């Protein structure tokens, strides 16, 4: 391939899946959070059907990975936890879904 | 991509759509507003106001307690603007119907147009179903009630049909929301 042909060639497909995002529970958390500005802990449990411990663990990993921001506050005497995507988290989940859609396109008829 | 993986990604996209339109799917609030309008159609605007205010307060508390809270990406400013425009337009239309006694009522036509706009914008992720369109059609058709002699409520026919439509739409939306949420397992 000449240099000119290399410059004109389409970019190589992005198949480097982020394992932090790919885990089903974390994928669910990130996908739901991408639909809202922020969500309470109970909302994430209700939409995803995750137990408290399971959700806490995955949120912790996502926070460590810089994809989610967790806010804790007290409403009266009750603690309330809510989560929101960081800009990096929004980019990561968007990239993941684009990769998935691209893969789906590869598996279609005539591929 | 395997069928199973395709199914679970579709399920996740549906869950995300419900999350995105969570506020509008809180249908018990819509339904109680509808009940308030029906009460008003039968003569009492004071009781109607009480029913609507109570419905909103109890409804918001109910959904927060049952499913938790999420802050929508829908613009709060646009939502408030839509609500204000709806109140002003419907209020003006109702006043016209009261004052002029036209053979075709203005309020149901205005309410139908506002519902159509609301459907397009508020349900843009989950979409609307047959019940929503039937409810809208009933509202619009009620504009012609005086022409066919169904004007026992006179200018309040529009309030009644809109109230009924909101009750139906609200109950359908609540059912959709409940069906989409998952039981929370204990640790």
Automatic annotation (TrEMBL), chain A:
<dbReference type="InterPro" id="IPR036388">
    <property type="entry name" value="WH-like_DNA-bd_sf"/>
</dbReference>
<dbReference type="InterPro" id="IPR036390">
    <property type="entry name" value="WH_DNA-bd_sf"/>
</dbReference>
<dbReference type="Pfam" id="PF13601">
    <property type="entry name" value="HTH_34"/>
</dbReference>
<keyword id="KW-0238">DNA-binding</keyword>
<dbReference type="InterPro" id="IPR027395">
    <property type="entry name" value="WH_DNA-bd_dom"/>
</dbReference>
<protein>
    <submittedName>
        <fullName>DNA-binding transcriptional regulator, MarR family</fullName>
    </submittedName>
</protein>
<dbReference type="GO" id="GO:0003677">
    <property type="term" value="F:DNA binding"/>
</dbReference>
<feature type="domain" description="Winged helix DNA-binding">
    <location>
        <begin position="26"/>
        <end position="102"/>
    </location>
</feature>
UniProtKB/TrEMBL annotation, chain B:
<feature type="transmembrane region" description="Helical">
    <location>
        <begin position="159"/>
        <end position="179"/>
    </location>
</feature>
<keyword id="KW-0812">Transmembrane</keyword>
<feature type="transmembrane region" description="Helical">
    <location>
        <begin position="102"/>
        <end position="121"/>
    </location>
</feature>
<feature type="transmembrane region" description="Helical">
    <location>
        <begin position="37"/>
        <end position="63"/>
    </location>
</feature>
<feature type="transmembrane region" description="Helical">
    <location>
        <begin position="133"/>
        <end position="153"/>
    </location>
</feature>
<keyword id="KW-1133">Transmembrane helix</keyword>
<protein>
    <submittedName>
        <fullName>Uncharacterized protein</fullName>
    </submittedName>
</protein>
<feature type="transmembrane region" description="Helical">
    <location>
        <begin position="75"/>
        <end position="96"/>
    </location>
</feature>
<keyword id="KW-0472">Membrane</keyword>
